[in-house]
Amino acid sequence: MVRMVITNVIVGNPPLPSAIVLSPAADTGADPEVAIDHNLNAEDIIGSAPMDVLPLSVGMVDAAQIARAADSETHRRPDTHDLLSSVVTVLGGEVSSASITRVEDTTFFATVDVIAADGTTHHVDARPSDAIALALRCDKPILASEDVLSRAGLPNFEAIASDEKRREAEEFHTFVESLSPSDFESPREP
């Protein structure tokens, strides 16, 4: 499984679609429970397929829930994801992660991974949007299988452009380093 971060949440107003975009997280040694990085840039995106992003189409309400959870926005009353988190905690369990486990055609499948009071781990079937919103509410990681990334990942054009700019800068630096004063002398006419 690859740890993911949310790079974009798009809340569309029908008929425009809503979506979330996940990217493999950089292995920076930072807190592994950070599920969203508001300061993510293209150089931070890595994984088994370094140029991949994983777009998930979600409902407008689901996208709004994920955006609120990502921004740690709270309400006066608990929403469904807060309720589920509280129930798991009251029963002595703990949400450990959200895992996007497979994709069939255009349908993604996920689990909420829960550690029960007796220490056993349970993988509870869930819609990816619910699993992600719950993981964000619980400050737990979002994971995706490498198979899902290889089958449904799309090129991350921002990372590709950044890599191209870095390569061009290195080539220019090498060129400048190779210059000598004689390269600037004008040719002498005979």
What do these coordinates show?
With 190 residues, this protein is of the alpha+beta class. Helix content is 32%, strand content 28%. The chain contains 5 helices and 8 strands. β5 and β6 form a beta hairpin. The termini are far apart. The model is unreliable at 28-50 (pLDDT under 50).
Secondary structure category:
alpha+beta
Oligomer: single chain
Question: What is the residue-mean pLDDT, rounded to a whole number?
Answer: 82
- Alpha carbon gap, first and last residue: 71 Å
Biggest sheet: strand arrangement = 6-5-4-7-1-2-3-8
Strand content: 25-35%
Sketch the topology as an H/E string, one letter per element. Answer: EEEHHEEEHEHEH
Largest sheet: 8 strands, mixed
Rg from C-alpha positions?
22 Å
Shape summary: elongated
Q: Low-confidence runs (pLDDT<50, min 5 residues)?
A: 28-50
List the helices and strands and how they pair.
Blueprint: E1 2-10, E2 18-24, E3 52-58, H1 60-70, H2 80-90, E4 94-104, E5 107-115, E6 121-126, H3 128-137, E7 142-144, H4 146-152, E8 154-155, H5 157-178
Helix pairs in contact: 1-3, 2-3
Task: Explain briefly what this protein structure is.
The protein contains 5 helices and 8 strands. The protein has 190 residues and is α+β, with helices and mostly antiparallel strands.
